[in-house]
Amino acid sequence: MDGVGVAPWDTAASSFSASGPAVVLTDAGGVVTAWNPDVCLLLGHSAVEIEGCRLDTLLSSDDAGVLRQVLTAQAAWAGRLTFTHRDGHPLDLALQAQPLSSVRGDPHWVLTLTRPEDLASPDRDQVLADWAFTQCPVVQVIYDTEVRFARINDAAARRFATTEKALRGRRVADVFPQPMYAAHQRHLRQVIETGKPVHYEGYYGLPGVVHERPWAHEMGPVRDEAGRVCGVIVTTYESSEQYWGRRRWSLLNEAGTRIGTTLDVAQTARELAETLAPRLADFVSVDLLDSVLRGAEPDPEQLHATLALRRVAHSSVTEGAPEAAVAVGGVSTHVLDSPYVRCLTAGRAVLTKAGEPDWDVWLAHDNLRKARVSEYGFHSALAVPLRSRGVTLGVLFLLRQLHPEHPLDRDDATLVEELAARAALSIDNALRFTREHTTALTLQRSLLPQRLAEHPAVEFASRYLPADSPAGIGGDWFDVIPLSGARVALVVGDVVGHGIQASATMGRLRAAVRTLADVDLSPDEVLTRLDDLVLRLSMESETVTDHGTESDVGATCLYATYDPVSRRCSVARAGHPSPALVREDGAVDFLDVPAGPPLGLGGLPFECGDFVLPEGSVLALFTDGLIESRRYDISAGLDTLRRALGVPEDSLESRCDNILEALLTKSPDDDVALLLARTRALGDGQVTVWDVEADPAVVAPTRGKAMRQLTEWGLDDLAFATELVVSELVTNAIRYGTDPIQLRLIRDHALIIEVTDGSNTAPHMRRARTFDEGGRGLLLVAQLTQRWGTRHTHNGKTIWAELPLTS
Fewer CB atoms inside 10 A, N or C side of the chain? Predict the structure, then answer.
């Protein structure tokens, strides 16, 4: 205890009257925050009148300016000032002002008021300091260098529920063995060892305090005449206001980075609930209007009646949120008197607390919620509307069960309203994205093949996966298009960009490809025509939007044709990955197809690659979303695809699933289109070819050969129609075509009749008049066959017709 100066203070104090000085605690601006009873006796004002007032208002005008200068200087001061007594007479008092140092930079003042006649003793300064310490309204304790109690003031004695005599000379650990005081002792030793002040805070209970509270401790070294540390003085005060204020604003800062990280409604609502619980409340729920979730505007009348809300997310300090009256995804109804409806109709936060009339009225209509509130001891609630862009979305609801001494209040409501406004904007963005994403996906799927008919040339399986991306659905597509002569066209394409515009462009390109396929152009010619179309779309887009090159339309495409008779596959690509070929022995190769520029550049040629495919091989066509992502580059994606295709699978459907599982561990970053086609071949017994001389006399013998072939195939029921079609097509080839002429019959899903000649002139139907002798041949062909047409070859043209098999 040596060096602390306890004994001299006690001796000096005994030489004075029992009445002590008036001690006032103010903030940095001079507003009274605490006082002792002697202030009221000295100035005549009641405690209610003094609390919260500025001390300079009790001074004469001249002395009020002096006090303001003292407080501004933030240095100790002593002097005389004239105060005004409550009855109006002037009161000349001695004032000593001592700032309370604070590491956090929010100083307070201890002001001691004394009558001049009470300061006659030569030891008045020491006695005055003793009085000020003892009667200071905040807890103050002095420790020696061995961390033993040296002095405690009256406020500390009341807080510890003991006396200074009982504590003096005892160590902190001996008096308070609880773990929370170990930190207190550690900070005391830090001040003793470093000689520097320390500020720290804790949340715990003290003797005589019912509930745990936040406490702030200001520790400063006490030095002797030589400057050596001989003790530590500690000022302790309850910091609930600062504690909860900091929690509120730190929560606001955290919310800015945590809420709205995705464009998923449920995820955004969950982030909001988990940010608030347990930081600000013990249970938080986010409920949205069901109509909003469906993409419709809310009905204003719905907000003035029984309200139906769907629980999107909730969070609790208790694992599993057992106190929730509604499960996530469930719907709850709320009456007009509930906080939910009241906050929506008022358009602002609604506070309610246990014991208040509106609390009981609300719970009287909901027995389940009433039981949960009672079971878990909730004592206050806060309902905040979620609104964005003038549209009501739902309600954010908070309940607090812990800290009954600190219920949800207006400051909490102000903070939560700010958070709700931010979160509502994120939720609204997510809802808008979801609606646009759904619309684009619906449009995309409606433009993709709904059901691809089986084809004799190939067996196929396909997959389409939309992008799980904020940018939205892309423009990937695939198609299987029947061609003449039992051939088939396989197509995959990818429109640059995302969203509804990309889907609409994809639909236009797919329709154009089907139209070009009907003309039976070669793959390179199809891409050339498609390139011209994309250029025109780009010019139209610039004209409409006036955004220049930002509105350019671009796409990639791969177009392949396969002939099951010759097993020849012709492929051309425009900025698209080459297809993969899986041979019957399991070997996987990527076909060496000449590279072509993406569609929309214009002026550059496309080339075909021709391949003979073994029967039973698998051709894999895909878009770049399958082999390229943020997790790996194209080379790694192609290697993974090669390995996945090499795994033996009897079913193409299973092979598709294995490929997606190998390459996509989660939802894709970009759209994915995948088309697998296993090749088939038509045997010699299904195809017959005859060379035809350019002489009308051979028409009848040729017709006879065709009839005998039908008999061999068991298709005599098609003899009449076949005889007329063969006669007409062969006659036209002899009359209007050039050598060489061939007749080919193919028996597959239909009977296909083809006549090829060396002329490039295509026939067309005419409307024959009554007395015309010609012009009815092709009309008869069109009437007798399922479909017919013309395709150009390298050496001429082929006219074909199909007759459906009757059995």
Answer: C
Q: What strands, in cross-sheet order, belong to the sheet with 32-35? A: 32-35, 22-26, 108-114, 90-100, 77-84
- What does the alpha-carbon distance between residue 345 and residue 298 come to, in Å, rounded to a whole number? 13
- Tell which residue, 396, 391, 382, has the closest CA to residue 353: 382
For the stretch 571-620, pLDDT in tens is 999 999 999 999 988 899 999 999 999 998 887 889 999 999 999 999 99
Interacting residues of 89 by C-beta distance below 8 A, sequence separation 6+: none
The secondary structure element, H or E, covering residue 49 is: helix 47-50
Q: Is 289 helix (H, G, I), strand (E, B) or coil?
A: strand
Residue 554 has pLDDT above 80, yes or no: yes
- Tell me the one-letter amino acid at 263: L
| 215 vs 213: CA distance, rounded Å | 6
Are 694 and 491 a contacting pair, CB within 8 Å? no
Please state, in angstroms and rounded to a whole number, the distance separating the CA atoms of residues 579 and 95.
Answer: 94
The model carries a pTM of: 0.58
143-199 per-position pLDDT tens digit? 999 999 999 998 888 888 888 888 888 888 888 777 777 888 889 999 999 999 998
User: What is the rounded (10 degree) CA torsion for 729, 734, 739, 744?
Assistant: 30
State the sign of the Cα–Cα–Cα–Cα dihedral 584, 585, 587, 589: negative
Starting at the edge strand that comes first in sequence, how are the strands of the sheet with 350-353 ordered? 331-334, 307-316, 283-289, 391-400, 380-388, 350-353
Query: C-alpha angle 515/608/614, rounded to 5°?
Result: 100
Handedness of CA 453, 457, 459, 462 (dihedral sign): negative
Burial class (CB in 10 A: 0-12, 13-18, 19+), 116: exposed
Q: How far apart are CA 82 and CA 88, in angstroms?
A: 12
* DSSP annotation of 54: B
Helix axes 265-276, 410-447, angle to 10 degrees: 160
Contact status, residue 423 vs residue 259, Cβ threshold 8 Å: yes
Total H helices, total E strands in the chain: 23, 31
Spell 496-506 as b/e; 16+ CB within 10 A means b: bbbbbbbbbbb
Helices 719-736 and 699-713 meet at what angle, rounded to 10? 150
